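Retro notes (design track)

What went well: tokenization of the new backbones is finally stable.
What didn't: we kept losing track of which sequence belonged to which structure.
Fix going forward: every design gets posted as structure first, then sequence, in one message. First example under the new rule, 310 residues:
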């Protein structure tokens, strides 16, 4: 199964952007992952929104560092976060091989998302801070929850460059940490060469594509919210339990928040017939058992009824 850890789950809203806080949250996440990995083949992906935003902010403050584009910073964040996850997995499962793989995600350079940045990254700003940053940088900044964040183009994930390498590692019994932050965004030139692009691929849609390409039985999308809510942010907000794809397709969810998670879950379930779960980081084993979170599955489909895979 593919387990996707949200960037906001690893550095939760309102928490300081420090290595110590991130490691503490990773330890919580790895506790849940290790429990699942003892009886399932697991591939782990993770977000990087807060982390890559912080790296970009640091680079912007040093004039000589402004040549580092978002694809390079994405690679940096993928290695940084992957290192912490890998180390904690080894500490929890010392008898299991674990590997972090820098992973590139090919996107379409003509994707309309490049003309309309919508993916929030980095720390949360007040309105005054956001206005100041807009005046001294070339950033697009927009509202996100109770504040403002930098907005980046988020093109559709098209092709995982290192997919065959991930498959080889999985077949060899390795717990793979890959596709961090949705993968390092690249595009293919007419000659077939790969080049980095200034974007952030949505990590949930990327995880859904990975789970589909691997033929996974389950996709877990873990975040800092306990479930998908109908009427989120209103007095009538209600958590959704087990849902058929058609039920969720009939509802609308916030584009920059829960929307991509729901869409990733729907694409995976519709393409493979697998099971998708959305919920809190620490609830992963319970989500897998259908006791917590939101479960997306075709009517009558259950994880235990699916054919076992190597």
């Amino acid at each position: 199964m593919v387990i996707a850890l949200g960037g906001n789950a690893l550095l939760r809203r309102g928490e300081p952007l420090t290595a110590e806080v991130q490691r503490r949250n990773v330890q919580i996440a790895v506790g849940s992952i290790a429990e699942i990995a003892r009886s399932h083949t697991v591939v782990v992906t993770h977000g990087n929104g807060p982390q890559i935003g912080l790296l970009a902010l640091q680079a912007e403050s040093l004039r000589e560092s402004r040549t580092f584009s978002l694809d390079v910073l994405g690679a940096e964040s993928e290695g940084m976060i992957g290192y912490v996850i890998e180390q904690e997995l080894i500490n929890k499962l010392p008898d299991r091989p674990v590997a972090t793989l820098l992973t590139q995600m090919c996107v379409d350079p003509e994707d309309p998302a490049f003309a309309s940045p919508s993916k929030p990254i980095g720390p949360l700003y007040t309105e005054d801070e956001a206005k100041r940053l807009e005046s001294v940088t070339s950033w697009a900044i927009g509202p996100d929850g109770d504040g403002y964040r930098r907005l980046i183009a988020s093109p559709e994930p098209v092709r995982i460059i290192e997919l065959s390498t991930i498959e080889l590692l999985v077949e060899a019994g390795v717990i793979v940490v890959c596709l961090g932050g949705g993968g390092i965004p690249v595009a293919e030139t007419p000659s077939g060469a790969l080049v980095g692009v200034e974007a952030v691929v949505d990590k949930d849609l990327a995880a859904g594509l990975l789970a589909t390409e691997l033929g996974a039985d389950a996709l877990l999308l873990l975040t800092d919210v306990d479930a998908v809510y109908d009427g989120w942010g209103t007095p009538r907000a209600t958590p959704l339990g087990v849902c058929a794809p058609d039920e969720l397709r009939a509802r609308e969810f916030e584009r920059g928040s829960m929307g991509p998670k729901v869409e990733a879950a729907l694409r995976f379930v519709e393409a493979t017939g697998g099971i998708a779960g959305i919920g809190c980081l620490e609830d992963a084993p319970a989500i897998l058992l259908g006791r917590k979170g939101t479960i997306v599955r075709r009517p009558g489909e259950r994880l235990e009824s699916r054919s076992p895979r190597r």
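Added context from the reviewer: The radius of gyration is 19 Å.
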